[in-house]
Hints:
Oligomer: single chain
Strand order of the largest sheet: 2-1-3-4-5
CATH topology of the largest domain: Rossmann fold
CATH architecture of the largest domain: 3-Layer(aba) Sandwich
Distance between the termini: 74 Å
Shape: elongated
CATH class of the largest domain: Alpha Beta
Structural class: alpha/beta
Mean pLDDT: 89
Largest sheet: 5 strands, parallel
Number of strands: 12
Order of helices and strands: HHEHEHEHEEHEHEHEHHEHEHEHHE
Helix content: 40-55%
Amino acid sequence: MKRREFITLIGSAAAAWPLAAGAQQAGIPVIGFLSPQAAGPAMDSRLSGFKNGLSELDFADGRNVRIEYRWAEGRYERLRPLADGLVREGVNLIVAPTHDAALAAKAVTNTISIAFISGGDPVLSGLVASMNRPGGNMTGVSMFSYELNAKRLGLLHEMVPKAAVVGVLINPRNANAENQWREFQEAAKSLGLNVVAGRVNGDGDLKQAVQGLVTAGAQAITAQADPFLAGSREQLVALSQKNNLPAIWEWPDFVAEGGLMSYGTSIVDAYRQVGVYAGRILKGEKPMELPVLQPTKFELVINKKTAKALGLNIPSGLLSIADEVIE
Length: 327
């Protein structure tokens, strides 16, 4: 090899060295944050929760830890390559704030620690061996969001008892999409309802999917627990209002945007909890010895103004159990 070629090769390699490696050389641990969503305002409160959790263990981004963000921007097929890139960069820890991100991280490493937030059952899906003793290199927070789909459908039925057909938005790219759809079907059968599915593959499909549900006779709508759909709250709330459709969502920020109602756990607190676990792991604790955390509080939020605009009288039973009513 000629000297000039050798120098060029070395220079190219140096330019390709990951930033994470430089941070590690300086003694600063690096967290790889892997998300199927896109960076933006929808993530602000959640990332604040995560950083607050880290701060409880005295870690601050840019001071004594570095966070390398990788966003799949709704393209779930990008998660595994992004996870593989974080492994090649030699991060100390991967934070996977969704079930699909956790599966992608698990597929590419069994040595780097992974702290996850999962909407499903992490034991059933193979993320951990058990809730109390996860084993392996993973632990985190289980939201059990998927199990709440039936509860949300029941609450929507209580709010709009005359709605015989409910549309359900489904993201086929979600690893648990079909399981969730079966859960909706079973819950609907027990309530005497019919459900129709509107499948969404990207931003451009949202309007078409909601219109398809209306055409199919949907008189109210809901959505599966899914990060992409959760990140599309402004558009989904606007579409439900435009089509005069009562809707129940997973997170209260939908209701703050003008959605009718939501039922679920606190996603911001889940991000805080996974931040705490990330800090504990960076301080030397092993994921296999940290039990998977579970939510203890579930919140029903109702927007009274939206109910009035839809011509709905909120049942007194729902008002009495609501954790928050937005006037």
